[in-house]
Design goal:
Largest sheet: none
Helix content: over 70%
Distance between the termini: 49 Å
Shape: flat
Radius of gyration: 21 Å
Number of strands: 0
CATH superfamily: MetI-like
Structural class: mainly alpha
Length: 224
């Protein structure tokens, strides 16, 4: 195992960096999607709530590997062959980021919806009674309180997203699992290679879990 890491360690570390980059891209856009859909799901508007409900159920109901194939292969086929709109191609990074953003965004929407609903409705009513418009009250009063309860869940979702990047090896993105497959093909040492990969994932995820617990304790302390 040590010999494999000495020879292929830089390659695996680069792949871990690509994995983290993909997860960060996915989470960044997932937060934007989740915020929009999460707010839509708590509006006093049946159309907005219906759109949010359909989006969440649709994305959560489709396996991520199917979503990855659809975005990477299906979307370019739709634009190039069916709609005949130019020549659309997606790189593995672009398709992977879109796939993670949509998948994670559906779960983020539920986190944000629950966070907003955890804030006492009297906070919004008090802000509105002071003359604040709905969106300003949401921005200045409700969301700052909701974020305190959402941050630990968001970090946990990032951990899940990080592990989900392994699924995107099916579209050829050079993340850790895909790179490990190439190492195994070159060395025929599957046990040692996958052991190194498991340890690398474990170290990163344990660090993220530790950061989540520290942040959660700090938020609880500041809220007292």
């Amino acid at each position: 195992m040590i010999q494999i890491f000495q020879k292929y360690g830089p390659l695996l570390m680069t792949a871990m960096g690509q994995t983290l980059l993909l997860a960060l891209y996915g989470l960044f856009f997932a937060c934007i999607i989740g915020l929009i859909v999460g707010i839509m799901s708590v509006l006093n508007n049946k159309v907005c709530r219906g759109i949010a409900l359909v989006f969440v159920n649709l994305i959560r109901g489709v396996p991520m590997i199917v979503l990855a194939y659809f975005i990477f292969f299906g979307v370019p086929f739709l634009f190039n062959t069916i709609l005949k709109i130019g020549s659309v191609t997606l790189t593995a990074l672009q398709a992977g980021s879109i796939c993670l953003a949509l998948n994670c965004g559906a779960y983020m929407a539920e986190i944000i919806r629950a966070g907003i609903q955890s804030v006492d409705i009297g906070q919004m009513e008090a802000a509105r009674s002071l003359g604040l418009p709905y969106w300003r009250a949401m921005q200045r009063v409700v969301l700052p309180q909701a974020i305190r309860t959402m941050i630990p869940s968001i970090i946990n979702q990032f951990i899940i997203t990080l592990k989900d990047t392994s699924i995107l090896s099916v579209i050829g993105f050079p993340e850790l699992v895909n790179t490990a497959k190439n190492v195994v093909a070159a060395t025929f040492l599957s046990f040692q290679t996958w052991g190194i990969v498991a340890i690398m994932y474990l170290i990163v995820i344990l660090l993220l879990q530790w950061a989540a617990k520290v942040l959660e304790r700090r938020l609880k302390y500041e809220s007292r």
